[in-house]
Amino acid sequence: MTSRIHFLALAASITLGSAAFAAEEPAASSDSPETAASLYGQSVSLPRQASACAERIADYMPRFQKFFDAWRTENAAQIAAGSKFIHEQAAKGGVDADAGMAKLADADVERLRKTSTELLARHCQLILESLAPPSVN
User: Fold this and answer.
1) Secondary structure in 3-state letters for 111-128
2) CA dist., res. 125 & res. 74, Å (int)
3) If you average pLDDT over residues 59-75, what whole number do you get?
4) CB 38 within 8 A of CB 81
5) In angstroms, rounded to a whole number, what is the distance separating the alpha carbons of residues 47 and 131?
């Protein structure tokens, strides 16, 4: 039971801390398993959040998809490592990693659906900005 709680806490912190508010650029700054797990969490959560954005923001999904596809390609190795790490931790705790990550992502979507249009627009814009490649000056 303790392993299950540890995994769920890890998954929640990865998803909620790194993906739910997209306030910081989701780029790999470390090769740690936790960083890789964070990127994996974002790869699961951000498309679901983008769907919630698209429900109320015209033309959101094509803009998101363009940036997300590039981000996912750039971070593919770490996302795969993060998936492996999360699934290994879940297996140790007897937890279904995919179901757990989906549950956390679904909770993010429900919060977004209940928020004001203004806050939703800001959050969705932050997602796009966080996925955009760094600008070259």
Assistant:
1) HHHHCCHHHHHHHHHHHH
2) 21
3) 96
4) no
5) 12
CA separation for the pair 4, 2 (Å, rounded): 5
Integer Cα distance of 91 and 109 in angstroms: 26
With 0-12 / 13-18 / 19 or more C-beta atoms within 10 angstroms meaning exposed / middle / buried, residue 43 is buried
Residue 67's nearest CA partner among 46, 45, 36, 39 is 46
Say yes or no to pLDDT of 22 above 90.
no
pLDDT in tens, 72-82: 999 999 999 99
Cα distance between residue 25 and residue 46, in whole Å: 12
pLDDT higher than threshold 90 for residue 36 = yes
Number of neighbours of residue 63 by Cβ within 10 angstroms: 19
Higher pLDDT, 10 or 47: 47
C-alpha 113/C-alpha 106 separation (Å) is: 11
Can you list the alpha helix ranges (DSSP code H) found in 19-96?
Answer: 33-56, 60-74, 76-93
Predicted local confidence at residue 78, as pLDDT: 96
- The one-letter code for the residue type at 131 is L
Based on its alpha-carbon atoms, the radius of gyration of the chain, rounded to whole angstroms, reads: 15
